[in-house]
Amino acid sequence: MNVSSINSNYNNLLNSKKNKIEEKSFETTLHKAMNNKDERELKKACNQFEQYFVNQLFKEMRNTVHNGGLIPKSQGEKLFEDMLYEEHSKEISEGQGIGIGEMMYKQLSKQGMK
Hints:
Elements: H1 4-36, H2 39-63, H3 75-94, H4 100-112
C-alpha cells in the first residue's frame, strides 16, 4: 500500500497553515504598530517580514536541487531541513539582514508615524 501521497498532502496542508499563521502574525504586528505609532513594533513587524521572505527564498532554492540518489529523504529529514531554514532565516533577519526589513521600516515609518 502506497501512502506517500497521504504524507505529501499532509505536508502541503501543514505548510499552508503555517504560512497563513506567519502572514497573520506579520499583519497583526504591523497594524498594531501603525495604529499605536510604535516604532519598536514597526521594526519588529518589518523584521518578521524579512524573516518570512528569506525563509521562502531558502525553500525555493531547495526546490531547485535534484533529489536523486539511492535513498529518498525521510519525513524527518524534510522536517529537519524546514526547521533549519527557519532558524537560518531568523538569524539572518535578526542580524544585518538582507536589507528588505530596513527598507520597509524606513518607508512605513515615513507614512504612518506622522
